[in-house]
Amino acid sequence: MGSQTKQVLEKRERKELILRVKVIYIRASKSGFKGGFMFFIIRLIINMVAILIIAYLFPGLIGVDSFWAALVSAFLLGIVNAIIKPILVFFTLPITIVTLGLFLLVINGLMLWLVSVLVRGFHVYGFWGAVIGAILISIVSWVLSRFVPK
């Protein structure tokens, strides 16, 4: 294939992708703000800002090299918390009950630490940095969520 043909195909593929995203957005927005695509984007931005704030205020706990590292970290943290965390909570249920739920803080820290291993440019400094960082990110995320209309 010639280079012009490849460029035309790439342009057509980009247009199709944009059209598909628009269709998904329209369908999601019809379901309402609470469960739609915009809710997901807003939560992602809130978590990214929370990560950036904690990294700025407490550089000894968490480090972020760039805006994109924070964005990818927020996205991966959401995926890890949705998929891996419930499995860990299930398998550690006895110790969670014995510690009256305090072990969940350790699990949250481990999830943050896992994300730091997977994302280049996002750093968690030590186990306690992960646990305290997870607590602080949760608090800042909760505070920022209060400003978003429901």
Fold blueprint:
Blueprint: H1 3-30, H2 37-57, E1 62-64, H3 67-91, H4 93-98, H5 103-118, E2 122-124, H6 127-145
Antiparallel strand pairs: 1-2
Helix pairs in contact: 2-3, 2-6, 3-5, 5-6
Description:
- Strands 1-2 form a two-stranded antiparallel ribbon.
- The N and C termini lie far apart (51 Å).
- It folds into two domains: 1-30; 33-145, no CATH class.
- The protein contains six helices and two strands.
- 77% of the residues lie in helices and 4% in strands.
Q: With helices defined by DSSP (H or I, 4 residues minimum), what is the helix count?
A: 6
- As a whole number of angstroms, the C-alpha radius of gyration is 19 Å
The domain tally reads 2
Class from secondary-structure proportions? mainly alpha
Mean pLDDT value: 85
Strand content: under 5%
Helix-strand pattern: HHEHHHEH
Which keywords apply here?
150 residues; mainly alpha; two-stranded antiparallel ribbon; 2 strands; 4% strand; globular
Provide a short characterization of the protein structure.
The chain has about 150 residues and is mostly helical.
